[in-house]
Amino acid sequence: MTGDKGNKLARALPRTPSNDKLGTKAKLDSGSQKRIGDQLRAMYDELMQQPVPDRFRELLDQLDRKKEGSQ
Questions:
Q1: How far apart are CA 34 and CA 10, in angstroms?
Q2: What is the residue extent of each domain of the chain?
Q3: Which of 13, 40, 56, 62 has its CA 20 to 30 A from that of 48?
């Protein structure tokens, strides 16, 4: 069911040539950038305050040990 929805969306969107330079000149003013940043921080602040799950901490510790052993 999800695949069908994606296919319909892909067909509905117009194809743009890969050499289209429209996206390279688009810029946001500093006020818009600040507003987006503030909104993102507000959305993710609660998530960032949550503790890291034990399983993730174990995986990070394993990666650190592996990295120290390879140096």
A1: 32
A2: 28-71
A3: 62
